[in-house]
Design goal:
Helix content: 55-70%
Largest sheet: 7 strands, mixed
Radius of gyration: 24 Å
Structural class: alpha+beta
Order of helices and strands: HHHEEHHHHEEEEEEEEEHHHHHHHHHHH
Mean pLDDT: 96
Low-confidence stretches: none
């Protein structure tokens, strides 16, 4: 497994030079004390923990996996001790409000830590990661008593949280779930049913696990309109806050899976477990979206992490591995061969990984910045605009960035050649660990339907216009910047075509709704490449300005500019194929009779 090194210079570039986070934080009421010095200190300390504690455990978790017994689940060697260090360091409470025991730091800053944790050891990072969503759900929808009972220890990390959604028969179609919630005389509910694929559902790292669970009340409407949300603790909590009896929610088994072996993916059995309604009756799915939106952005980080870690491993190997000679003559005449980084195809793979890693970071941090504004924007209008921008970008970030992250992980194996297929190098683990990111929190197809169907066509394109106006404004500002035209001109052309493509799909969809499903994934991928082009154009302009002004970091900014050039010339043309496929027509998919699929 590659030794993770936090890309601190690029993190600071995105935060300070691209997004001007220091000025942004000064607009947030709770972030007055979030100074550049504080941010630097957090990043430095966080990177040490990730590099020195979590990264060495990544291969351990993959090799050992989790162990199930009737008494519970044991995590891999070192995981529990690392979690104690994490809690002792105050990391779980970073972004929670001070009123509930948190540090009140911006969500966007917490996301930087999430990136470093996830890249260094994704399986481990899932244990505390899901607690964040549980905390946010409880803050927004919990009663005062529920907040007092559960939030302090969830925020501190003494307890962890999960989200228990899907069941063996329903997958992402939650409208068909069967878990029941029967009212008890004391105001609680008796929860019965089976949930599957529950990440971190059972483990030995915390004293209690709080399951945020979907279930149906008696006589509830069918479908998604009849789902309620419940708090179901692993261990019941006494009135004085101490732990009481073990609740009747247990881990029936842990899944034997392709990757993320270090995380316990559980089958959870609720056998009349005591639970407590959170939020209004039959509005559980609405409340759960608090959880889901964060989870989707968190999953986008896995795509970024896959690109970053695989790139780091591939780059080191490409510099050291000797094979063949350069086509233009020996570059290592004293050796038996040249390092493979001199070969154009290896450069192609490395630059693809680098372009996706750095572009993903820009997209995710920008989206997180919108999240800060949603929570603490100065005006209602600013909060509304940020919320709509975030809603538009979230399915793109979740689906597109995990797709290209998986591509990057596979390229990492390819750079190593046969050695990449061997477990001892750790590159194949990145592929296995990353594959789930394309599935959970909604598959690429589901995210694509959300983007094209709900976010764009149902708003008559308003969600798209909000982003394309941002792109248009940037292109207009740089219209007279001749040095930047290699980026600005194609971006402006693409931005116009994006609207035209959307209109074309919308027109045919009015006659046949199957056209939406037919076009959705290609449309999402097109949108992802177009969105990344905007961020790469902005980063290229900044790099040009720094180089023109003179800088002692010439190598950094030159590489940034060269990567942008590679993205526009070698990656962005993929939009042409996706656009053509998106309007290829539903009939090409739907005209074949089901029986004709037989073999």
């Amino acid at each position: 497994m590659p030794d993770y090194k936090a890309p601190i210079r690029d993190i600071k570039f995105v935060m300070n030079e691209l997004l001007d986070m220091p000025a942004h934080y000064q607009t947030l009421p709770s972030a007055e004390m979030t100074t550049p010095d504080m941010v630097d200190a957090i990043i430095q300390e966080g990177s040490k923990f990730c590099e020195q504690v979590l990264s060495p455990l990544n291969a351990v978790g993959d090799t050992e996996g989790c162990t199930w017994s009737e008494t519970g689940v044991t995590t891999p060697k070192g995981f529990k001790e690392a979690y104690k260090q994490y809690v002792d360091g105050g990391w779980p409470s970073m972004t929670a409000p001070e009123a509930v025991g948190g540090q009140g730091l911006p969500e966007s800053l917490g996301l930087v830590m999430s990136e470093m944790v996830g890249t260094s050891n994704w399986a481990w990072g899932m244990y505390p990661g899901l607690s964040h969503g549980a905390v946010n759900t409880m803050i927004l929808h919990g009663s005062d008593e529920q907040k007092e009972t559960y939030l302090p220890k969830l925020v501190s990390g003494e307890w962890t949280g999960t989200m228990c959604l899907t069941e063996p028969h329903c997958g992402s179609d939650l409208g068909t779930l069967r878990t029941k919630a029967e009212p008890n005389a004391d105001g609680s509910y008796s929860i019965s049913g089976t949930k599957i694929f529950i990440s971190s559902g059972e483990h030995d790292m915390a004293d209690n696990i709080i399951h945020i669970t979907l279930a149906r009340l008696p006589n509830a409407p069918s479908g998604t309109k009849g789902i309620s949300l419940f708090i179901v603790p692993k261990v019941l909590v006494n009135a004085d806050g101490s732990l009481g009896e073990r609740n009747t929610v247990t881990c029936g088994s842990i899944e034997h899976k392709m990757g993320i072996h270090g995380n316990s993916t559980c089958v959870m059995n609720f056998d009349g477990a005591k639970g407590y309604l959170i939020g209004p009756e039959n509005k559980g799915l609405n409340c759960m979206f608090t959880f889901m939106n964060f989870a989707r952005l968190g999953t986008a980080i896995q795509g970024l992490g896959a690109s970053e870690l695989s790139f780091q491993g591939a780059l080191k190997y490409a510099k050291e591995r000797l094979a063949m000679r350069s086509l233009t003559g020996p570059k290592n005449p004293g050796g038996i061969a040249d390092p493979i980084i001199v070969h154009p195809d290896v450069r192609r793979m490395l630059l693809t990984q680098k372009a996706f890693a750095e572009g993903s970071r820009a997209m995710i941090y920008f989206t997180a910045q919108q999240g800060d504004i949603v929570h603490e924007g100065e005006t209602e209008e600013a909060r509304k605009e940020a919320d709509e921008m975030m809603a538009f970008l979230t399915p793109i970030a979740k689906a597109f960035l995990t797709e290209v992250g998986y591509e990057s992980a596979n390229l990492g194996v390819q750079v190593y050649g046969g050695h990449g297929f061997i477990a001892e190098w750790g590159m194949e683990q990145i592929v296995r660990d990353t594959r789930i990111a394309l599935l959970y929190e909604g598959t690429t197809g589901i995210q694509a339907l959300d983007l094209l169907g709900r976010k764009i066509l149902m708003t008559q394109g308003e969600a798209l216009k909000r982003f394309t106006k941002l792109v248009h404004k940037f292109c207009t500002q740089e219209a007279d910047n001749q040095a930047a035209q290699e980026f600005v001109a194609p971006l402006a052309k693409l931005n116009k075509e994006w609207g035209e493509l959307t209109m074309k799909i919308g027109m045919v969809a009015m006659k046949d709704r199957e056209e939406v499903g037919s076009a959705a994934v290609d449309y999402l991928m097109y949108s992802g490449y177009a969105t990344l082009a905007y961020f790469w154009a902005r980063m290229a302009v900044i790099a040009q300005q720094k180089l023109a002004a003179g800088t002692d970091e010439e190598a950094f900014y030159t590489a940034k500019l060269q990567t942008a050039r590679f993205y526009f010339k070698r990656i962005l043309p993929r939009t042409l194929a996706h656009a053509a496929s998106a309007v290829g027509g539903a009939s090409t998919l739907m005209q074949m009779d089901v029986e004709s699929f037989a073999f």
